[in-house]
Amino acid sequence: MNTIGVCNQEDLIKWLTLTTIKGVTPREWLDVIEKNSISLDHLFTGNWQPQVNHQAELPEKLAQLIRAADLQRIEQSLEWQSQETLNQLVSIDCSSYPEMLKQLCSPPLVLFVRGNERLISQPSIALVGSRRCTHAGKQIAQEFARQLAELGWSVVSGLATGIDAAAHQGALHGQAKTIAVTGTGPDKIYPARNQKLHHSIVEQGGTIVSEFWPGTPPRACHFPRRNRIIAALSTGTVVIEAAIKSGTLITANLAIDLGREVFAVPGNIYNSTSEGCHHLIQQGAKLVFKVEDIIEEFACVPSQLALQGVDESQKSPCENLATDELLDSVDFDVTAVDVIAERNKLSVSEVLATLLEYELRGCVAAVPGGYVKLRGKKNVRHPHVSI
Questions:
Q1: Which residues form the Smf/DprA SLOG domain (predicted)?
Q2: 67 and 202 co-located in one domain
Q3: Residues 76, 213: contact at Cβ < 8 Å?
Q4: How far apart are CA 51 and CA 38, in angstroms?
Q5: What integer pLDDT is reported at residue 7 of this predicted model?
Q6: What's the rounded Cα separation, in Å, for the pair 155 and 137?
Q7: How far apart are CA 151 and CA 146, in angstroms?
């Protein structure tokens, strides 16, 4: 659309106005603007001509709807924004609005963001799963989230009990932090037992995101809408324990529809919380049991990865091992680790540490018997799953 740019308060109020109008979806408002090549200002004045002749009365009809907007709700939202600097309203024409979210059929016109606003546009992976998870499932979620955050990936989840909460907790111990997408207004915490976690996410540099107005309580119909935002914000979605009929599989299905990577952790075949994961694997999702299984599907690691952001003069001797010379010593055929060590006159432990860095960057791959150099960037596979 032709209005995308840095948002201002006047435009923000207009987007809030459109959001209050019942019976017209965000996609319908965006279609009117895009298909008729008009600006947001023209939409509000009614001073434009529709491209389709039989819709000549459309401008005036839409102008009437706009005049009937819920001004009280708009004021409440602006008041919420003014309460703290951590509270932000991000409209779809803001430069900080996530581009990946615009791939939704009907993306939210306004996001209510509390915390680190920049985080919602950075590379992220969703970790989702059952509320009634096993102790092992919680451990997996925490460890996966911590490792992903250490590698620069923000971790997205839904602030529910069980796997969601464990994922947020694990990510808080990493570098890239976590994003909690809620099914309530930005000022409501659900479930109440996650109040401490909610505050920790904001205080430690994470973000709370919602498309619902301040004061909105939890409702069953809100959570599928929340799930679509989780799927859209994330480069990939990892499912850790899920029943066949669950909101978690809805999130996975939405990720598939968006062409995103989907991963599933296998579990006990006698446990109902593993059925959803096994179903996804049968349908083509990638089976994973370690973080490396996830990140190897992506051509590169996030730009904020510490290994890429450290100044060369400040690197330790071990970090400086990641040179082109060592990479050149890895053949396109299988090269044993001891051979690589001999070629570079380094210890095996030093070489393994460096090879792990190269593997994370997509330059080499571990295979039986050693490592092979990859020819150019890795191809990213998208599982074609029909659920």
A1: 90-298
A2: no
A3: yes
A4: 10
A5: 64
A6: 16
A7: 9
Domain that holds residue 31: 9-84
Express as a percent the part of the chain with pLDDT over 90. 57
- 177 within 8 A of 148, measured Cβ to Cβ: no
Give residue 299's pLDDT.
65
Query: How many domains does the chain divide into?
Result: 3
pLDDT of res. 156: 98
Concatenating the DSSP letter of every residue in 355-387 gives HHHHHHTTSEEEETTEEEE-SSSPPPP------
Q: Which helix or strand (DSSP H or E) is residue 170 part of?
A: helix 163-171
Question: Are 47 and 135 in a shared domain?
Answer: no
For 185-236, the pLDDT digits (tens) are 999 999 999 999 999 999 999 999 999 999 999 999 999 999 999 999 999 9
Which of 295, 321, 349 terminates a domain? The answer is 295
The first and second tokens of residue 71, run together, are 């001004």
Query: Is residue 3 one of the residues assigned to a domain?
Result: no
Please spell the DSSP secondary structure of 243-291, one letter per residue.
Answer: -SSSHHHHHHHHHHHTT-EEEEE---TT-GGGHHHHHHHHTTPEE-SSH
**pLDDT tens digit sequence for 237-254:** 999 999 988 889 999 999
Closest CA to 161 of 207, 125, 194, 202: 194
